[in-house]
Write a structure and sequence with these properties.
The structure holds three protein chains of three kinds.
Chain A: H1 10-18, H2 21-45, H3 48-64, H4 66-79, E1 83-87, H5 90-103, E2 108-111, H6 115-119, H7 122-128, E3 132-135, H8 138-145, H9 163-174, H10 182-199, E4 202-205, E5 209-211, E6 216-221, H11 225-231, E7 235-241, E8 245-246, H12 249-264, E9 271-276, E10 289-295, H13 299-302, H14 318-322, H15 326-329, H16 340-351, H17 353-356, H18 368-372, H19 379-392, H20 399-411, H21 415-429, E11 433-434, E12 437-438, H22 445-449, E13 454-455, H23 462-470
Chain B: E1 6-7, H1 9-19, H2 47-60, E2 63-69, H3 73-83, E3 88-91, H4 96-99, H5 103-112, E4 116-119, H6 125-134, E5 137-141, E6 144-146, E7 151-155, H7 163-166, E8 170-176, E9 180-181, H8 184-196, E10 204-208, E11 213-214, E12 222-223, E13 230-237
Parallel strand pairs in B: 2-13, 3-4, 3-5, 5-8, 6-9, 8-13
Antiparallel strand pairs in B: 6-7, 7-10, 11-12
Chain C: E1 2-5, H1 9-14, H2 16-28, E2 32-34, H3 44-48, H4 52-65, E3 71-74, H5 77-89, H6 96-105, E4 107-109, H7 110-117, E5 126-133, H8 137-142, H9 148-154, E6 157-161, H10 177-180, H11 182-199, E7 203-206, H12 209-221, E8 227-230, H13 231-235
Parallel strand pairs in C: 1-2, 1-3, 3-4, 5-6, 5-7, 7-8
Helix pairs in contact in C: 5-6, 7-9, 11-12
The chains are: A alpha/beta, B alpha/beta, C alpha/beta.
Chain lengths: 475, 239, 238
């Protein structure tokens, strides 16, 4: 899958998704719920701005010293019997993981949710070998069974599906015979996956936060699936985005506190687990073999650039939940595994401007995302920066727009030109004007007037009124 | 323990240092932070106040909670066992059970009531998992308990299998009152201190808050997904 | 008090009445107003779309036009905010950065100016009706003016206020976004108007021409009996 989730063009994706009334209703109510809970928790915790500032300073510090912390992490993982593989590219990562699977003659692999494994297309690489890869996060499992449909939200991947659709997916693909009641579906999945955990050869996880001081990885879930994935199979592979690391347990708990409140409005999720190396001597559950695969995949190119703040991200999706655009177009419109504001910033950086040049314009720069971010990433500013890059460096802006903006540049710098243009505006728009309104505008105005009226330009500008007034003229 | 391998580190870290405009670092001072908001939370609370906070929080996390002492523990525990349908129980191998006065309950009463008890056995790897999988109830003991979030912290070891808190359908966690602290901050500092003094921390540390759940289907909360479906905390007055 | 008016291009071309109301309210409060003829546009349309070079000439024009001013007041939070961005745009320029900073330091949004500088909350306005208020994004989140409009509206005699559900949510204007992504913008403004209707207010008040033209345009299209007023017009009612 890598970053791109669709071959369809942006405009087409958006038109299609705007018609999906279920999705829009589901996303709006999910946003309300997530937002309300996040704000309630922030309020209850108190001093939220200080928490955000602390989260920001931790993430900034780690990024500025990332090589050191990764060095410390790898030393400590190794001391606890774990193997560390540094993978600069997606292929290096998947090749390595394939080799582990082959060495272990793995037939069945259980997996907990991980965005970085989607970045590197891990499941496809393992399936190529003939391994059965089973997603254990309920939302991811639903999408996997539904012919690998891409996720539409970082935290709640199957948000766009209603319970009837979910029941039908299991009915068609697996012969599920019960109702659409969520408890019944969950019970069905629980029973089905139990056996998979017990018979899997390898467990693969992502990593919410690696802890450098001890060589530990932290997994945050509500379902308990990551714990079963790591307690039962003999081999554990953890795949980690290179910047997902903290210095010590102390910073881990601060970021977890921010994550769980910002993502799902909980003080802590049901299961937060730190795993360190292979199982201890004498343990009878836990992995005998542990591999930590640290993935770059273009993330390091963002370091040292003006986009570096996006690497502060702790993948809470608070920005997604606050975004008024995402609210209407949903995750699939973005055509990327990362949607919403974080997706708008990351996708061109990791996936290139060619595939994602429309995304930075799918924003009103309203700043709701920046406000919501628990680690103070200036998201709307980064989105704006992308626009600059697209116009200046990438030369990917439409020619007609470039010309318009050049004209704007001229007109807005010359009072004479401006006066001429505005004097012409009213008569020029006369054919389109009725009752002081324009209902079917020409050119760019057409897109506006699809949904609303546009006011006709004043016959006399405000400035003329002011001037005449000063001269003692009529009001 | 044999050290694990590390591959491709140098070129990877050099790239990072390069992007940051400097040479790679392998030494660093521990950072000092400008903000420490976590210190404030429940700072002034007494142990009893923390218990109240814990009781209140349990209402939010679908967890039953019982306050008791060693004298009444056997009776109170038995009530929960019966409430969960008895049948089979799996526990850690832990002498604290005896210390809490549970020997008679576990070794005499349960066999009489046809409640099967299995104790985690480091010599029996397959049997452990088999028993954990089919057990109705798992009983563990919290090492540190976080009042603010209603969380029990469990450390794994050869006698304290990870699976005991995960596989059975019902989970009972015994919480000695002395283990209760305000929030995760205190637990994190304790563990970090262990790391700094060179103590080997458990390969698995679980911060468990109530039973498992998910809201992945239409944002409707379902309690009991992959982990336990029900959870009870029993706070034991031990001071 | 000498106050220099930064009317904004939208007010100048499409909402002259708003400009008039601003003038009348400020004069009534004792301000001596001037309007520099050389002002055209703060540069937002080009700047926000990523055309920074093209917007710089317009910006330099504005900096020069307002150089003489003591206080620069604008009936638009987003345009006032744009002036606050100028120092960053001209960062490193030894001539224009200090000038931009000087302008940024003396620029105020209209309600902010009345409450924080003139220290007035009751301007003696009287308007009968039930009103709701849309908080414009740039004015609240970026410029940080959150209290002033409410303090002023609170003192308007006869006006009943009902809170707008989702009042902080973007109306979908976003400048060129409204034409570039017209269908998404349409969906957003449609929800905004639904929210306005839920309040059963007969007046919608806002403090930014862009938002009001957007929401008003949708209200008109749907022929809803809701009057759209800029806060300056409300404060000018006696």
């Amino acid at each position: 899958m890598s970053m791109k989730t669709s071959d369809d063009h942006f405009n087409h994706r958006v038109s299609k998704e705007l018609e999906n009334t279920f999705m829009r209703g589901a996303v709006s109510s999910a946003q309300e719920r997530f937002q309300t809970r996040r704000l309630k928790q922030a309020d209850e915790l108190g001093h939220w701005e200080e928490w955000r500032s602390h989260g920001e300073e931790i993430r900034k510090h780690v990024l500025a010293n990332l090589d050191y912390y990764l060095y410390q992490l790898s030393e400590n993982v190794s001391k606890r019997g774990g193997h560390v593989y540094f993978a600069q590219t997606a292929k290096e990562a998947t090749d390595y993981i394939q080799s582990i699977a082959k060495k272990n003659k793995a037939a069945k692999i259980v997996k907990s949710k991980s965005m970085v494994t989607e970045e590197i297309d891990l499941n496809a690489a393992l399936e190529e070998l003939g391994c059965e890869v089973i997603e254990t996060d309920l939302g991811e499992y639903i999408l996997q069974v539904d012919d690998h449909e891409p996720p539409s939200h970082i935290v709640a991947p199957a948000l766009h599906k209603n319970k009837e659709q979910i029941r039908d997916i299991f009915k068609e693909k697996q012969g599920y015979a019960k109702s659409e009641k969520p408890e019944e579906i969950a019970l069905y999945v629980r029973e089905k996956l139990r056996n998979e955990y017990l018979t899997a050869d390898i467990g693969i996880t992502g990593c919410n936060f690696a802890i450098a001081e001890s060589g530990s990885i932290t997994l945050v879930t509500n379902e308990g699936n990551a714990d079963l994935v790591t307690a039962l199979p003999k081999t554990q592979i953890t795949v980690m985005g290179m910047e997902r690391i903290v210095p010590t347990f102390e910073e881990m708990e601060v970021l977890v506190s921010l994550l769980t409140r910002s993502a799902v409005g909980q003080k802590l999720t049901s299961y937060i687990t730190t795993l360190t190396g292979i199982k201890d001597e004498g343990d009878t559950d836990g992995p005998e073999e542990f591999h930590l695969v640290i993935v770059d995949n273009g993330h390091s190119n963002i370091l040292g650039s003006e986009f570096q703040p996006i690497l502060q991200c702790i993948r809470c999706a608070a920005c997604v939940n606050a975004c008024p655009v995402y609210r209407h177009v949903g995750g699939h419109s973005y055509g990327s595994i990362y949607s919403g504001p974080v997706g708008v910033v990351l996708s061109p950086l990791l996936g290139g401007y060619e595939d994602f040049k429309e995304l930075p314009y799918a924003s009103t720069l309203c700043g709701a995302c920046t406000d919501a971010c628990p680690v103070k990433i200036p998201l709307h500013q980064l989105i704006h920066r992308h626009r600059q890059v697209i116009v200046e460096n990438e030369g990917k802006a439409p020619v007609s727009e470039k010309l318009l903006m050049k004209a704007f540049g001229l007109g807005a710098s010359s009072p004479t030109l401006y006066k001429m243009a505005t004097k012409m505006a009213s008569p020029a728009m006369a054919p389109f004007t009725k009752n002081q309104k324009i209902s079917n505008g020409p050119g760019p105005l057409k897109a506006w007037t699809e949904a609303r009226d546009f006011p006709a330009p004043n016959k006399d500008n405000f400035r003329d009124w002011f001037k005449h007034r000063q001269k003692g003229g009529d009001e | 323990m044999m050290a694990g391998t590390i591959e491709n580190r140098d070129v990877f870290l050099s790239k990072i240092a390069n992007q940051l405009g400097r040479a790679p670092k392998t030494e660093m001072e521990r950072p000092t932070w400008q903000y420490q908001p976590q210190d404030r939370v429940l700072k002034e609370a007494t142990k009893d106040e923390l218990v109240e906070v814990l009781v209140e929080q349990c209402k939010n996390i679908h967890t039953d909670i019982i306050l008791t002492n060693t004298a009444n523990l056997p009776v109170d525990l038995q009530k929960v066992i019966e409430n969960y349908g008895g049948q089979s129980v799996i526990t850690w191998k832990d002498e604290r059970f005896m210390g809490f006065g549970l020997s008679s309950l576990m070794t005499e009463q349960w066999p009489q009531a046809n409640i099967q008890l299995y104790e985690w056995d480091s010599e029996q790897p397959e049997e452990n998992i088999r028993q954990a999988e089919k057990a109705n109830i798992g009983i563990t003991i919290s090492e540190i308990t976080l009042a603010e979030s209603g969380t029990a912290v469990l450390f794994s070891s050869k006698d304290k299998g990870r699976s005991v808190s995960f596989l059975p359908e019902n989970s009972i966690i015994l919480i000695p009152k002395s283990t209760i602290v305000p929030r995760m901050t205190q637990a994190a500092r304790l563990i970090s201190e262990k790391v700094r003094t060179g103590e080997q921390i458990a390969s698995c540390i679980n911060f468990i808050t109530g039973p498992s759940n998910s809201a992945d289907i239409e944002m409707i909360l379902i309690v009991g997904v992959h982990g336990p479906m029900k959870a009870t905390y029993i706070v034991i007055e031990d001071q | 008090m000498k106050v220099t008016l930064f009317a904004t291009c939208l007010v100048d071309m499409f909402q002259g009445d708003v400009g008039k109301a601003v003038v009348e309210v400020l004069e009534r409060l004792g301000c001596d107003l001037d309007f520099p003829e050389n002002q055209i546009c703060c540069g937002q349309p080009a700047y926000n779309s990523g055309y920074v070079k093209e917007s710089k000439n317009a910006m330099r024009k504005m900096i020069t036009a307002f150089e003489h001013a003591e206080y620069v007041v604008s009936p638009s939070g987003s345009c006032a905010y744009m002036f606050k961005e100028y120092p960053e745009v001209f960062k490193g320029d030894p001539v224009w950065e200090p000038k931009a900073q000087a302008l940024a330091n003396k620029t105020y949004e209209f309600t902010e100016f009345i409450v924080d500088v003139l220290k007035v909350e009751d301007v003696g306005a009287h308007l009968e009706g039930t009103a709701t208020y849309h908080t414009s994004c740039h004015m609240t989140r970026l410029l940080g003016v959150t209290e002033a409009p409410f303090k002023l509206l609170n003192q308007v005699k006869g006006l009943q206020y009902v809170e707008l559900p989702g009042k902080d949510r973007c109306c979908g204007f976003g400048g060129t976004f409204s034409v570039k992504m017209g269908n998404i913008s349409g969906a957003m403004v449609n929800e905004k108007v639904q929210n306005v209707e839920e309040t059963e207010a007969n007046i919608l008040i806002g403090a930014d021409a862009g938002c009001l033209i957007n929401i008003g345009g949708r209200i008109n299209r749907q022929s809803k009996p809701i009057k759209v007023m800029h806060i300056a017009e409300v404060l000018n009612c006696r």
